[in-house]
Design a protein that fits this description.
By secondary structure, the chain is mainly α. About 85% of the residues lie in helices and about 0% in strands.
Length: about 120
């Protein structure tokens, strides 16, 4: 077991180093403005996956399945990502306040409830 733990920690540290480097590279090379061709597909696709996770959470809670614990973490994480990208992509547009309000009123409180439910379960 010790060897497996050491290998896992080594892989995790390696992932952290690579991700940190990649983040710096992206920060220096990404364009300030980008015209995206599949914008609608990406946003609607993310919301479809979020809906699927909500359905799975409801099913797992109703059936009292242990997978509920994992699904609550996934739901909370997806809601935080949704809030982050909604607000981040709306900056300096007419919908900034709508995105910020949506994050404060809906997405982040629901994420908190999902994380709290995960912890409690």
């Amino acid at each position: 077991m010790r060897g497996e733990r050491r290998l896992a920690l080594t892989l995790l540290i390696g992932c952290c180093v690579v991700l940190a480097g990649w983040t710096v590279i992206l920060g220096m090379t990404l364009p300030r403005h980008l015209n995206v061709h599949h914008w609608r597909l990406v946003w609607v696709g993310f919301d479809v996956f979020l809906l699927a996770v909500f359905v799975a959470v409801a099913w797992a809670a109703w059936r009292e399945r242990q997978v509920l614990i994992l699904l609550l973490m996934v739901t909370g994480t997806m809601l935080c990502c949704d809030a982050w990208f909604d607000v981040g992509t709306s900056l300096r547009t007419g919908s900034t306040w709508l995105s910020v309000s949506s994050a404060i009123i809906a997405e982040l409180p629901l994420a908190f409830l999902a994380f709290a439910g995960h912890r409690r379960t």
